[in-house]
Structures are given as structure tokens and as C-alpha cells.
Design a protein that fits this description.
Elements (H helix, E strand, L loop, with lengths): L6 H17 L2 H8 L7 H11 L17 H14 L5 H15 L2 H13 L4 E4 L5 H4 L19 E6 L2 E12 L6 E8 L6 E8 L5 E6 L8 E13 L7 H37 L1 E2 L2 E2 L4 H27 L17 H5 L5 H25 L10 H15 L2 H11 L6 H7 L1
Parallel strand pairs: 1-4
Antiparallel strand pairs: 2-3, 3-7, 4-5, 5-7, 6-7, 8-9
Length: 419
């Protein structure tokens, strides 16, 4: 593994950091989360037009930049530093790879160029708090998380004019505002139980959407009700949907890990700046040995998490570290998207979420009484850590699944039988 960044990767990071610094400060952040959409459409347009961020990891043949998951993860690190509320996670990290992997040629041609240009936003609609299960982050994604043939979740039935969906999905990222819904639904009843993905326009007849109150306001969520809605099957009915979701989960884990590292690094930087200014007993509190030791521990934890996140991003690229815009577009789309989710992605996500929680908690502590108030942004980083763990964790289950995937605790006899 070559740990150094290419000039293209450095340029992506630098340009994106400068743009977010000028367009997404604390005041702009608060204004964006208070809008009905929960993000600033003008910022999303700037990210698309100036940097091509929505299409960063999509092939050039579909209007994308043609980079790999590595570049996308590095971009997520910069977005995480500012906690910028954008459709990036829902549209670019979760939905676009699934359309690229499973969609028909017609569906790819119709949707991916619009996703890459930023004119179309999308989200993956999974019933209830089952997103981590669907992406195989905390265990096997087989089972009844999409509905299980019983009341609840989203059900799909075949009709004369195609497919019809009915049910409800809660806590859907950008579910209240996304232009396109990629809905995971249960089909086939008990006898032919299976999970399929369907394309539904956000304004389709029978779709009712409402924004939900979320712990982390920078990750807006919505409730989606589907009342006998006409839907289009994504790809072919015999496609391996669960494998595609697991492969998308590996890329998502790497992107989230880098995003958490960016947030943790920013929280630590702000804390260090503050302890140099705040005075007690006639001297800055940053000069006290106890404060130095605590912040040194946080620094070590953040740097270790950064190494894990970068390795996960490198591992999420099937070329195993080629990770540059010049080579990734030449790989077949199916080969890039249907890789087995590596355990290092789950471990990296667990470690970075731990680091973010520690860094943000220490930031609140050292900022004193103002740290947890709405007037200060320190609490936003702590809510990001807690919110991500609720959506994509918890941490102990991420680690347990990684250990199971790597067969860490199997006996030698069990390993021989498995082989």
C-alpha cells in the first residue's frame, strides 16, 4: 500500500476544503439545517458545477469524473470537517453505486448522468432503523428487514401494469426531499421471499413524505409512506440485490469513516485553539499538564482512526490501492461494485466513530458551560457521532461482525472445516 496521496487527490481535498470554508461556516450551516430541505441547494449546485462532487466516483461514460471510492472517501473527510449538510451521502455514496451495479442500460443512461451533474438527488429508502443491516455493516443482510411478508416495512406486489408498493419507511436520509427514491421492498410472500429494489419518483402519486426530527440536524431524515404506488424494478428480477447492498456497504463504511475522521480532527483543532485562549488562575488552561495529557490522548486516537479510515478507503477500491482517476474508469462497473465487503471497513468505521465521540465529548468538556448549548457548534459534532452510531452501528456490533467475517475467534478445526 502506498500511503501517499496523488496530486489529483491532494487537489480534490484542497479545493473542496476552500470551497466549504467559504460557503459553509457556522452561520451558513445553521441556516441550511433550518430550511425545509435541510440543506443549501446553492451549495450543492456549487459542489456539482465547480468540483463535480456528485459524480466523483461515477464513470465518465455516464457523466462522472471517473475516480474511485478512495477519492470519494477523501472528499467525505472534508465534508465531515465542516459537517456540511448536503445530499452527498444519500445520493452519491448510497444510491448511485446501486444504480450503477444493478440498473439496466436504459436506467443507467437515464439516471446516472443526472445524478452526476447534481440535478437529481436520490436516497435509499430502508424500513425503520435497518440501514446498517441492509448494508451488511453489523451482520448478514439476509432476513426480514425489508418487511418479511408481514405487516410493516414495505411490500411489493406484481400487478398488470408492473409493480405496486405499499408500506412505510422511517428515518430515511433526505427522504423528505430527494427527487428519486430507491426503495427496498419485500416481495414473493413466504414461499418466494426475496428483497428487491424499486425506483420511485419522489412526487409520485401515493407517496407521502414528511421530515422527521433527528438527533443530528445536519443529517436530515424523513418518513416515507407508500400507498399503492407504481414502481419500476431496478435491474432484472434475478439480480443479487443483497450482494450489491453489501458491496455498497463497504464503500459507505469507508466514506463514513473518513467523514468521521474529518469531524474529529476539526473538533480537536477547535478545542486546542480554545484551551490556548481560556485562562484560569492567571494562565491558559492549555498550559496545565492534565489538559495536555487528555488532548494528547485524543490526538493519538484521531491519528490512529485516520490511518484506519485511509486503509479502508484504499481497500474499498477493487484495484487495491490504484485509487486514482486515471485507472478506475477502465474497470467494469460490475467488478467495481460487487466486491466482498472487507472487514477492515467495519473496523475502521467503529474506530473512527469512537474517535469522533471522544474528540467531541472532550471538546464540550473543555469549552465549559457554553459547549453543549445551541449557540456553540461543539455539540453538533457530538450529535454527529451519536447519530451515526444509531444509523450505522452500534460500534460493538460493527466490531463483532468484522471479527466474524475474518473468522477471528474460530478454532483451527472450525476453520479447516470451513475451508
Amino acid at each position: 500500500m502506498d500511503a501517499s496521496f496523488t496530486p489529483e487527490q491532494d487537489e480534490i481535498r484542497r479545493t473542496l476544503r476552500e470551497l466549504l470554508h467559504s460557503r459553509c461556516g457556522p452561520r451558513e450551516l445553521r441556516a441550511a439545517v433550518d430550511t425545509p430541505a435541510g440543506h443549501d441547494p446553492a451549495l450543492w449546485t456549487a459542489l456539482a458545477e465547480q468540483l463535480g462532487l456528485p459524480g466523483l466516483a461515477l464513470p465518465e461514460s455516464y457523466g462522472g469524473v471517473g475516480c474511485s471510492a478512495t477519492e470519494l472517501a477523501l472528499a467525505c473527510e472534508e465534508v465531515g470537517r465542516s459537517l456540511a449538510p448536503t445530499p452527498l451521502l444519500a445520493t452519491t455514496v448510497l444510491t448511485a453505486p446501486l444504480i450503477l451495479a444493478l440498473g439496466t442500460d436504459t436506467q443507467r443512461t437515464a439516471l446516472l448522468p443526472r445524478l452526476a451533474s447534481g440535478t437529481l438527488t436520490a436516497t435509499l429508502a430502508v424500513p425503520g432503523p435497518a440501514l446498517a443491516t441492509a448494508l451488511a455493516l453489523t451482520g448478514d443482510n439476509t432476513g426480514d428487514w425489508a418487511g418479511g411478508g408481514r405487516a410493516g416495512g414495505v411490500q411489493a406486489r406484481r400487478a398488470q401494469d408492473g409493480w405496486r408498493l405499499y408500506g412505510q419507511a422511517d428515518q430515511v436520509l433526505d427522504g423528505h426531499s430527494a427527487d428519486l427514491l430507491l426503495v427496498a421492498a419485500h416481495a414473493g410472500g413466504f414461499a418466494r421471499s426475496r428483497t428487491l429494489l424499486f425506483l420511485v419518483p419522489g412526487d409520485a402519486t401515493g407517496v407521502v413524505r414528511v421530515r422527521q426530527t433527528a438527533l443530528d440536524a445536519t443529517r436530515p431524515q424523513g418518513r416515507i409512506q407508500l400507498r399503492d404506488v407504481e414502481a419500476e424494478l431496478l435491474g432484472e428480477e434475478g439480480a443479487d440485490v443483497l450482494a450489491a447492498l453489501a458491496a455498497a456497504g463497504a464503500v459507505t463504511a469507508a466514506a463514513l469513516a473518513c467523514e468521521a475522521v474529518g469531524a474529529a480532527d476539526r473538533a480537536l483543532d477547535r478545542t486546542v485553539e480554545y484551551v490556548k485562549q481560556r485562562e484560569q488562575f492567571g494562565r491558559s488552561i492549555g498550559s496545565f499538564q492534565a489538559v495536555k495529557h487528555r488532548l494528547a490522548d485524543v490526538y493519538v486516537q484521531v491519528q490512529a482512526a485516520r490511518s484506519a479510515a485511509y486503509y479502508a478507503a484504499w481497500s474499498a477500491t477493487p484495484s487495491r490501492g490504484a485509487g486514482n482517476c486515471a485507472t478506475s474508469p477502465n474497470e467494469p462497473a460490475a467488478a467495481r461494485q460487487h466486491t466482498v465487503a472487507p472487514p477492515e471497513a467495519h473496523l475502521a468505521l467503529a474506530q473512527t466513530l469512537d474517535a469522533l465521540r471522544t474528540a467531541s465529548a472532550e471538546s464540550i468538556q473543555f469549552h465549559g458551560g457554553i459547549g453543549f448549548t445551541w449557540e456553540h457548534e461543539a455539540h453538533l459534532y457530538f450529535k454527529r457521532a451519536a447519530g451515526d452510531e444509531l444509523l450505522f452501528g452500534p460500534v460493538h456490533r460493527l466490531r463483532a461482525h468484522a471479527a466474524d467475517t475474518a473468522r477471528l475467534f474460530e478454532t483451527s478445526e472450525a476453520q479447516e472445516v470451513a475451508v
